[in-house]
Amino acid sequence: MTDMVNEPPHYKQGEIECKDAIKEALGRSGYINYCRGNAIKYIWRAPHKGNPEQDLNKAQFYLNEAIQTLKEIN
After folding, report:
1. Long-range pairs for 60-68: beta carbons < 8 A, 24 or more residues apart
2. Counting beta carbons within 10 angstroms of the beta carbon of residue 60, is it exposed (0 to 12), middle (13 to 18) or buried (19 or more)?
3. What is the DSSP letter of 46?
4. pLDDT at 1
5. In whole angstroms, what is the distance from residue 55 CA to residue 3 CA?
6. With contact defined as beta carbons under 8 Å apart, do 74 and 61 qualify?
7. What is the DSSP letter of 50?
8. pLDDT exceeds 90 at position 11
9. What is the DSSP letter of 49?
10. Is 27 in a helix, a strand, or coil?
11. 3-state secondary structure of 12
12. What are the tens digits of pLDDT across the range 31-63?
């Protein structure tokens, strides 16, 4: 079964994932801010869409990405 939260297929072209391209373009600190913004977006919209659990899982995914990137910096 396709994991639409952690590995949605529409965000990968060949071997490159969109999030990895964004991290390279923005640098690590820029990517952390990108992840924080996405987490806020998914939390904000969760009660207003058809699948709030999925949106909250997506927010959690981006928070985990931000935490992992912070660990890479330190």
Report:
1. 61/5, 61/6, 62/35, 62/36, 62/38, 63/35, 63/36, 63/39, 65/19, 65/31, 65/35, 66/31, 66/32, 66/35, 66/36, 66/39
2. middle
3. G
4. 74
5. 13
6. no
7. S
8. no
9. S
10. helix
11. strand
12. 999 999 999 999 999 999 899 999 999 999 999
Instruction: Give the burial class of 73: count Cβ atoms within 10 A of its Cβ; 0-12 exposed, 13-18 middle, 19 or more buried.
Output: exposed
Determine the residue type at 32.
I
List, in order, residues 6 or more apart from 2 with CB less than 8 Å away. 8, 9
pLDDT of 18 above 70? yes
Q: Length of the chain, please?
A: 74
Side chain identity, residue 29: S
Which range is least confidently modeled, 6-10, 15-19, 53-57? 6-10
Provide the β-strand partners of residue 16. 13
Q: Are strands 12-13 and 16-17 parallel, antiparallel or unpaired?
A: antiparallel
